[in-house]
Design a protein that fits this description.
about 400 residues, Growth Hormone, Chain: A
Length: about 400
């Protein structure tokens, strides 16, 4: 582990903030989506592509930064990413049409993706493998607050300042954080890639890496497809309100935070592999239960909220050890490994979100069907692909 002196806490805080700000690019904007057709033209179905474009752009940016991070100083790349993210966010807030906003959202997602690539490797350098799962659990719990709190802040910004206020806030925060990281960069460890050559191909053909990366992507992607579709489903199809959606989010995220912060201790006691299995099965059970409820005509937002709880709890249990073992399975190529994990998440989410967009006004069934399919596919991957044999405390 690289020695970072007394600066490891603020360094970790900056990495957390940079990662969370990238997530805010979706969740802070989420409450504005149902109102965008009235402001910029277009349809509700088309407005969903504002979310899908950001996710697809992020996937492109992740691959780019994953490759660049294996060759150049990741700290400098992170600063440049934040500057570009801020400037493009400002431009997005001035979009004259829905089509222009969709295009800028792709660029915005690409520009703001560096933190997600570099964070796992930097955290390993700061804390070492023994403490990395707990650190990732804390990072995950902080990230989880963004879907719970950012829509509240986004709704407040819309009511006071209009649909574009969220983009302006992101622009300001990104530029300020870029300045802070540039000033503190000596306290942030420089991650060195120990595995040379092969590019992404050696990871894409590694069944062990794919087991952790894709199963993680399917579990999280299932939840995100549901979250991205929920505002329109609640407001248009179920006759509920955005407040009902926010209550669902806050309930699910609270359970995720509890589970994610317990996962480090549980993984040391019972094994990381076992926690991945338990979390994946629990998430799949929640997804299947929600689909069954939708197929039987269920439309009670309180019941939907209750079924959302096991979804989030399962992700909290499997998320930190699953992501960490995916990075470990990259065998020294942390940047590319982390990039592919997050790319898999975002591609899964983008395809799922775009796939259910034409049916978004039908009700809960389309998004629940997609979520259940992904969650069950995650279980299948754990069954079919070989596991990584590592020793992490009592993990095996």
């Amino acid at each position: 582990m690289k020695k970072t002196g007394g600066g490891h806490v603020p360094a970790f805080a900056m990495i957390v903030c940079a990662t969370v700000l990238g997530i805010a690019g979706t969740d802070l904007v989420l409450p504005a989506v149902p109102a965008l057709p009235k402001v910029l033209g277009g349809t509700l179905e088309r407005a969903q592509l504002v979310l899908a474009a950001f996710v697809a752009g992020s996937a492109f940016g992740l691959l780019l930064f994953g490759s660049l991070g294996a060759r150049f100083d990741q700290r400098a790349l992170l600063v440049g990413s934040l500057v570009a993210y801020g400037l493009i966010s400002g431009l997005a807030g001035m979009s004259p049409s829905l089509e222009a906003l969709i295009g800028l959202r792709f660029l915005q997602g690409a520009a703001g993706s560096a933190a997600a690539v570099f964070a796992p490797g930097i955290i390993r350098e700061l804390f070492g493998d023994q403490r990395a799962v707990s650190a990732l659990g804390f990072l995950g719990s902080v990230e989880a607050l963004t879907p719970a709190l950012a829509p509240v802040a986004g709704l407040w910004l819309i009511q006071l300042f209009g649909w574009n206020a969220s983009f302006e806030v992101i622009a300001c925060l990104a530029l300020l954080l870029a300045v802070a990281i540039a000033a503190w960069h000596r306290h942030i460890p420089a991650v060195v890639t120990s595995r040379k050559g092969g590019g992404y191909r050696h990871l894409l053909t590694d069944a062990v890496f794919l087991r952790y990366a894709v199963s993680h992507a399917f579990t999280l992607g299932a939840l995100l497809v549901l979250v991205f579709g929920a505002p329109t489903v609640f407001v248009v199809a179920l006759g509920a309100t955005l407040t009902n959606f926010i209550i669902m989010q806050m309930t699910g995220i609270a359970t995720f935070i509890v589970a994610a912060n317990l996962t480090g201790q549980l993984a040391r006691r019972f094994g990381a592999e076992r926690m991945i299995w338990i979390g994946t099965l629990l998430s799949a059970a929640g997804a299947v239960a929600m689909l069954a409820y939708a197929l039987f005509g269920g439309a009670d937002v309180l019941m939907i909220t209750a079924l959302f709880v096991p979804f989030n709890t399962g992700l909290g249990l499997r998320g930190p050890p699953g992501f960490h073992l995916a990075v470990v399975a990259a065998r020294g190529d942390d940047a590319r490994g982390a990039a592919l994990v997050v790319v898999a998440i975002l591609v899964t989410t983008a395809i799922g979100t775009a796939g259910v967009a034409p049916f978004i006004t039908v009700g809960l069934t389309p998004v629940a069907s997609c979520a259940a399919t992904l969650a069950l596919a995650s279980v299948a991957l754990l069954m079919l692909l070989p596991s990584l044999k590592v020793q992490m405390g009592s993990a095996g």
